Amino acid sequence: MSQKNKKQFGVWMDNHHAIVVGRANADAEDFSVLGHTENAGAASNSNEKTAHNDAKRLQAKFFKEITALMQNAEELHVTGTGTAQEQFIRFLSDTPQFKNTITKESTSNKMSDEKLTEFIAGKFN
């Protein structure tokens, strides 16, 4: 299978925001931004257990919104700040649809959509 036909995606993420980059369709050669997702985070709660459960539920929802933009991903490069990338990669490995996806990660500061698109394209060339 040639590099062009692989379903390759890139994600920049932190705990509250994600940008998904990929090819709009299988025949496209150039990467483009496929979408942005937000995780507002849990509202404050005086009960620690409830607050923790809310945070986990919202994080799972955030991760599912990201994966909805990356159907049948074969290769994925995750970048960003903090520990969100590691948690997202662990989430993918526990998800049957993505357990065979080849994932790589790096750390980077937030960048514009255009710079992110160039960065991800460079990771797959």
Could you describe the 3D structure shown?
By secondary structure, the protein is an alpha/beta fold. It has a single domain (3-123), classed as Nucleotidyltransferase, domain 5. 34% of the residues lie in helices and 25% in strands. It has three helices and five strands. It has helices at residues 48-68, 84-93, 113-123, and strands at residues 8-13, 17-22, 32-38, 75-80, 102-107. A five-stranded mixed β-sheet has the order 3-2-1-4-5, sandwiched between helices. Strand 4, helix 2 (84-93) and strand 5 (102-107) form a beta-alpha-beta unit. The radius of gyration is 15 Å and the shape is globular. The protein starts with 7 loop residues before the first strand and ends with a helix.
What secondary-structure arrangement, pairings included, does this model have?
Blueprint: E1 8-13, E2 17-22, E3 32-38, H1 48-68, E4 75-80, H2 84-93, E5 102-107, H3 113-123
Give a quick precis of the structure.
This protein has 125 residues and is of the alpha/beta class.
